Each structure stands twice: as C-alpha cells, then as structure tokens.
C-alpha cells in the first residue's frame, strides 16, 4: 500500500533567535511573574517535524507574552531534529538517534552508559521539567486526522482534558512499549501528585489547520492554569469548543513484529468498527482483528514501521461529555 505524501502548507519559523536563554537551557525560556501561581510549560518540537507547536511558541516569544501569575516556560525540545528537516524526506526529521518521547523515566535518564542526541537533550531539560506543575506538549500526526488530546492513563489527565474542553476526542492510554513519554514523566504520571500534563495531537504535521488547534489549546491551557488572562492573548486564537467530548480508553496497542504489516484500508484515525472480529490489517500474513464491538482506531500509521513500533492503538468510548456553552470561556 502506498503512503500518501502530504503537502507542506506552513512556513517553518527561524527559531535561532531563541537559542540563548537566561534559563541556561538553549531554546527554553522561563518567565517568573513574581506572583504566586503554578509553573506552566508549553513545549514544542518533541518531534522535529511537528511544526505547529514551534509556530505557536515562536509567536508567543516574539510577542513577549509574560505571565501575570506563577511562572511560564516556553520551550523547543528536539531542536537538532528540527534543524535537520528536509522537505524531500520530511518524516526523517522526527528524531536524530531515537524518539525523544520514549526516554522519560528516571532510570533511563540516570543511565549514563546510554547516549544519544535525544538523551543529551532530555538530560539538559530535565532539571527544569522537574519544576513544572502543568505541561502542555504540542504534537501533530503522521496522517491527516481530526485533532485529539492524549490524556494518559490517570483520571486526573482526563479530568484536565474535559476542563480544557477541546479537542473533541480524549484518548486515555498507558503510552508505548518503546518507552515513556514526557507527559507521563514522574509527577505527571503519579496519581498522588498534583502535577498534570496533556499532549495535544493538533492535526497532520504540515497542515494549516493544525496551527489553529495549537493556538487555541495553548491559549485555553494558559487561561485554565491562571497564568494569563484572555486579554493577554493574540487576537483570533480562541475557537469555539466542541459540543461534546468523547473519552476513549485505549485497551491495547497493535505492535509490528516485523516489516510485514499492512492495513486493510487507508485508515487515518478515529475509525469505528461496529462489530468485533473485523479485519483491520495483516501482520506476517495473519489477520489482525478488532477484539470488541465499536472498536476505535487511534492514530494508525506505517510511516515509522519497524519491529517494536506501535502501528495503531485500539480504543473504547467510555464516556461522552456534553456542554451547552461552546465558547469555553
């Protein structure tokens, strides 16, 4: 099955002006209001080819947004991967040596026998991440799919997603077999901790619409945390919230065991199969079947296919939250 090449509809910002920072961490800027409040972080470029978050963080830094309460950190994570972007092979810039979003356990970061470009960057950012109370990690997707929130496995994550109000689909999951994500690191993934994090998949990597989703969710996250007021926002950033949010629990990943994996159709995500036993693909010549009725496909993609990679996750709709006020203000 051929893999669609999506057009690049956005300009990649020159972030070199943000390299030097008083925080001492290149490309990561922290501003303290001097007034009590949480430490909130907006993170971009966890993957180097996911540009919508970089556009938003670049815009906020250039506009000199400052918190009214608490602390605000605006950061670019995998800058080395971003700087390697080549429009002729755009998927290659996801990372340099390994996925930056699979190294976030204390044991992995403490193991100095392991080295990579991504581990070096994560270790440099770690002391600051340890002080963050609320993290919004801006991502985008390989395929052109509706945006979604990845809220992690805990109730506090899904509750925060509902308070944010958008996008319409909230994915609750345990992460990836390859390693832990930043949004699940330490206190973010501890039910006893007040720290919390959301990951937003804003749309396809290079579509214009993903930038609008990134702006809207960033604005709402900062307002929800209380570090800024609506009047501090650039005009036009807020969009109406959906009338309903679906809370979807991922029950299992489908992990490739070899390069011999293909889907039964060109899925892009959030497809629902009414009956159990539907064939969604083949792995090593054997059919891959839906395990239950009303099974949803979450972020199917073969662009990073290799043994051990999750090619799709399977989910159940647990709850639907409706709201009459769709302004979300």
UniProtKB/TrEMBL annotation:
GO MF term list: hydrolase activity, acting on ester bonds; metal ion binding
Cross-referenced Pfam families: AstE_AspA_cat
All copies of domain Succinylglutamate desuccinylase/Aspartoacylase catalytic, residue ranges: 36-192
InterPro entries on file: AspA/AstE_fam (IPR050178), AstE_AspA_cat (IPR055438)
GO cellular component assignments: cytosol
Recorded superkingdom: Bacteria
Cofactor: Zn(2+)
Keywords, in A-Z order: Hydrolase, Metal-binding, Zinc
Gene3D superfamilies: Zn peptidases (3.40.630.10)
PANTHER family: ASPARTOACYLASE, SUCCINYLGLUTAMATE DESUCCINYLASE
Entry protein name: Succinylglutamate desuccinylase/aspartoacylase family protein
Taxonomic source organism: Paraburkholderia bryophila
């Amino acid at each position: 099955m051929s893999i669609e090449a999506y057009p690049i509809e956005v300009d990649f910002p020159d972030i070199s002006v943000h390299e030097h920072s008083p925080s001492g961490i290149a490309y990561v800027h922290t501003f303290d209001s001097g007034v009590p409040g949480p430490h909130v972080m907006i993170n971009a470029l966890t993957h180097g080819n996911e540009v919508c978050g970089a556009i938003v963080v670049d815009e906020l830094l250039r506009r000199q947004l400052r918190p009214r309460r608490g602390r605000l950190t605006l950061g670019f994570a995998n800058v080395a991967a971003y700087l390697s972007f080549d429009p002729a092979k755009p998927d290659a810039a996801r990372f340099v040596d390994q996925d930056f979003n699979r190294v976030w356990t204390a044991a992995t970061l403490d193991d100095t026998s392991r080295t990579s470009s991504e581990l070096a960057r994560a270790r440099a950012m770690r002391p600051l991440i340890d002080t963050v109370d609320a993290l919004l990690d801006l991502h985008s997707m390989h395929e052109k799919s509706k945006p979604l929130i990845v809220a992690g496995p805990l109730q506090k994550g899904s509750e925060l997603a509902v308070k944010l109000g958008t996008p319409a689909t909230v994915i609750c999951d345990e992460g990836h077999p390859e390693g832990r994500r930043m949004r699940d690191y330490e206190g973010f993934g501890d039910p006893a901790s007040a720290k919390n994090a959301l990951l937003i998949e804003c749309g396809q990597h290079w579509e214009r619409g993903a930038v609008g989703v990134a702006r809207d969710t960033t604005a709402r996250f900062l307002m929800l945390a209380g570090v800024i007021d609506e009047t501090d926002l650039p005009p036009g950033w807020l969009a109406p919230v959906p009338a309903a949010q679906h809370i979807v629990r991922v029950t299992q990943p489908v992990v490739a065991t070899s390069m011999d994996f293909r889907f039964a159709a060109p899925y892009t995500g959030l497809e629902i199969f009414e009956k159990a036993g539907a064939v969604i693909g083949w792995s090593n010549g054997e059919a891959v079947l839906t395990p239950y009725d009303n099974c949803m496909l979450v972020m199917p993609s073969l662009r990073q296919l290799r043994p051990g990679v999750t090619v799709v996750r399977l989910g159940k709709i647990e709850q639907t939250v409706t709201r009459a006020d769709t302004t979300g203000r």
